[in-house]
Amino acid sequence: MKINAQKLRDLANKNIVPALRTALNRTAMHIKKQEVSEIGRVFDRPTRFTLNSVEVDLARRNDLRVIVRVKDAPRLGDKHYLSAQVHGGGRRLKRYELLLQRYGYLPAGKYTVPGKGARLEGNGNMSPGQIVQILSYLRAFPEQGYMANATARSLVRNKKPRDYFVMRDGGGKPTGIYQRLGNSKFPMPVLIFVDQPKYTKRFNFMKVAENATYARFRHHVRVALKELAG
Fold first, then answer.
1. Model confidence, pTM
2. Which of 56, 71, 117, 172 has the fewest CB atoms nearer than 10 Å to its CB?
């Protein structure tokens, strides 16, 4: 696209800030689109929550800054779990892990991974319904977090009682949360307690943003100036 000399002179007499704001905002939205595309490429079957994890603060009339970032987690003020995939290193505790620590079940310094008895969704993540079930059960019957037998009252209330409890090794160290259904003699591991998981960088957020900016910003500036020039 070309702007002739007369239009350039006309532009010199106009306030081009609106055009720059438009170009910045269009570029920011393009960056977001590319980041979402990259999430779909590097992660296996990402959830809708993961795909919606990139947010944009657009430039305003008196502030020409735009910010494209990974959202903070919506609860407990934690950082989004994608942060570990961007920067590498250990992941933060998930919300339910913080609650398990608060209730006294998950030892300090430990994290959880799904066990054989965990119900997984199609994307491989643990079912939120089962997490709520575990937290509700352990909070309602705290004594059963450390005892293997369900109370008579719970057996009467549930035809198929879901008895969650903390399994311990020979030295009394907690190793995970297990579930016993009905009269089964063999409880199933639902959450296994492990050391902090370590991640390598998989999501090159900054590189994607840089490439998208170089590819589109000048184009958006030219288009916005042409629109301003009429």
1. 0.59
2. 172
